[in-house]
Amino acid sequence: MSSSAQLLVRFSRRDHYVRDQSDQITLTWNLKDTSIAKRYFAAFTNAASLNQMYRQDRFINFANEFYTEERVVEQINRNLKMLDDNFPGLIQEYATLKMSQNQMNALHVYFEKYRGPFLNPSAVYANSSDEIREALDDLNLMIHRYEDLGYSGRQMSEHPKFYVTFGLNELNQRKPLFEEDFSEFTLECEFGQWMLDYCEVGKTFFDLWRDGDEIIGDEAILPLRYYSSEGSVYFGPDSREEDVLKFQSEMNKWWDQNAEKLQELGFTKDDPKNAIGSIIVADLDRNNPNINGMTNSEIVDLISRYQWIESVSWQSPVSIAPSQVVREYQNGI
């Protein structure tokens, strides 16, 4: 057992062809020794203790994934139709196969506009049934899932990853990042690393650049300023220095081209709070018996057969009781 705190994910057998809850594996991640990683661990353990996982099938770009292009388009249109049935005339366009990134950006505006900001939801969202709210939230997830399939032509293709999602509520809230946390943003990622997930209604600067999005509302341009219990796990190749430098150059060029508008919105390139990249909080435990000795591609192949998160849990260092971790989070750590 690792001497550091660990995040545990138990997967069930599921792909495009089969689902078997009796066939399971567990993988582990070693928590990093940083302030934000420790606070994330507290948020994660609090959410895991509530046993309220949400969307346990968010696996992207693994072989034989359940969500084909046809299924994603069908689900996007099901959500759009539900909105239009309840608010006639609200929806002016629907999803099609082989959509462009511009079409995806246009569909995403429905989510931005009718879901509204996280702390100030729109009247449509605030006054609707849980079913309508779920349709709006699912619309966002399915749009991004379609983009990740690679058909829309967005810049930079996605590598395999999965998300750990709980859904935010009064018992599982997001919290602001500390000033010191912004120095943890990095463009260098390694295979199997666990990072903070985005918990806003909008897009980061990276997403604006990657999507070529010129129709997003100003209020939806939101860099990451909060963390929550939710995370994503990257299963692409380790970052190469030349790729990082190339991306930094392209982002600098994009920023300079859009500097006037961004400055009007209060964003400047040299502000640490506008950092680009991800905050990594844990590393894949390669000593886990289920993957010990495997290559990266063998691990990806294994996970591709277990595309359902059955449960999550954690292990604390002996000196820290699990109940203490949860209590500290609830008291505002």
Task: Summarize, please.
This protein is of the alpha+beta class and 333 residues long. It has ten helices and eleven strands.
Name the overall outline.
Answer: globular
Q: How many DSSP E strands?
A: 11
Give the C-alpha Rg: 20 Å
Low-pLDDT windows of residues? none
What do the pLDDT scores average to?
90
Supply the key terms.
nine-stranded antiparallel sheet; 11 strands; two-stranded antiparallel sheet; 17% strand; 10 helices; alpha+beta; 36% helix; 333 residues
Question: Which SSEs are present, and which pair or pack?
Answer:
Elements: E1 6-14, E2 19-31, H1 35-50, E3 59-60, H2 69-86, H3 101-115, H4 123-126, H5 130-149, E4 161-164, E5 175-176, E6 185-186, E7 194-196, H6 205-211, E8 226-227, E9 231-234, H7 241-257, H8 259-264, E10 278-284, H9 296-304, E11 308-315, H10 322-330
Antiparallel strand pairs: 1-2, 1-11, 2-10, 3-4, 4-9, 5-8, 6-10, 7-9, 7-10
Descriptive account of the structure:
By secondary structure, the chain is of the alpha+beta class. 36% of the residues lie in helices and 17% in strands. The radius of gyration is 20 Å and the shape is globular. The two termini are 26 Å apart. The mean pLDDT is 90.
